[in-house]
Amino acid sequence: EQMQQMPTSEPRTLSFCTSSHALLRILDMIIVINFLKTFNSALMNDFTMYKRCFQQLRGVLSPTESELVAQQSHSLYFFLANPNSVVNTFKEAVQKLTDYDRHLQTLVDLCISALSLTSEVNDSSRHSEICTYLRVVVFLIFVIDGNACDAFKLSCIKDIRAIVKKSPSIHVYGELTLDPIFVLKAAPHWSSSGDSVFNSEDDPSCLIL
User: Fold this and answer.
1) CA 132 to chain centre
2) According to the model, what pLDDT value does residue 207 have?
3) Angstrom distance (rounded) from CA 103 to CA 3
């Protein structure tokens, strides 16, 4: 709903700012949850314990209840076993929307603009805010890239490359960090377009940060 409202709102208006920043917060939450799920081994340990408990209780459950729990357990296993299930599910849903790439490019531009303004600010209190923009802008390229759009051919990709060059490691949560190149390599067009863009010789004109 917030994404659909953005194109009808003029930049810098209250409606545009509300919609865009709400989306940024949602996206960042999805990214952090996805990352924590992937790297928190305790979740799989808890799931193993859950399956053991289910096996012990299976005899006292009705066939219908037993089948329902078994199906839920099966779905939960694939959710936990897939390293990027949260982000991938989000990406699949977003790419079904009309003009999704145009909507998300608006958010990319917003992140780039925010990062260019904060690049000269040496304020530790804004570290969390800057990391939010960094996480979101990298994952937005991954989400945009698909059958309908080669994200590595967007006009903003040189700016993204400059951001990645300057921030090869992005804070996520606690002591956990992510490698932006690792994220981008999972995009469908990385091998055909992205690799050459991000591994080409530095062009001083594109280093905006």
Assistant:
1) 11
2) 42
3) 6
Strand-pairing partners, residue 171, are 177
**Cα–chain center distance at 62:** 41
Any long-range contacts for 203-208 (C-beta under 8 Å, 24+ apart)?
203/158, 206/158, 206/159, 206/161, 206/162, 207/162, 207/165, 207/166, 208/112, 208/116, 208/159, 208/162
What's the pLDDT at 1?
Answer: 53
State the average pLDDT over residues 116-142: 81
d(CA 9, CA 114): 19
The whole-angstrom distance between residue 38's C-alpha and the CA centroid of its chain comes to 13
Please choose, from the candidates 190, 164, 188, 159, the residue with its C-alpha nearest in 3D space to the C-alpha of residue 178.
164
Neighbours of 186 (CB within 10 A): 13
